[in-house]
Design brief:
single chain, mainly alpha
């Protein structure tokens, strides 16, 4: 009976370690996803600003031609 309890405790310890490792990975990937979302939003914002600048330049060129 004592052997079985030792095995059970060893299994539970391994499970606990595996859970901790998995949680660390999840936290790491959640942070990476958050950083990528932030970067994506920055790129979208920059693209909008660039599109506005290009439209303004095109409009100035059109006005200058006539």
């Amino acid at each position: 009976m004592e052997k079985e309890m030792d095995k059970f405790e060893a299994i539970e310890e391994v499970k606990k370690e595996a859970d901790e490792l998995m949680m660390n990975k999840i936290i790491k990937y959640e942070k990476e996803i958050a950083n990528l979302k932030k970067e994506l939003q920055e790129v979208k914002d920059d693209n909008k600003k660039l599109a506005l600048q290009i439209n303004e330049m095109i409009n100035r060129l059109r006005d200058a031609e006539f």
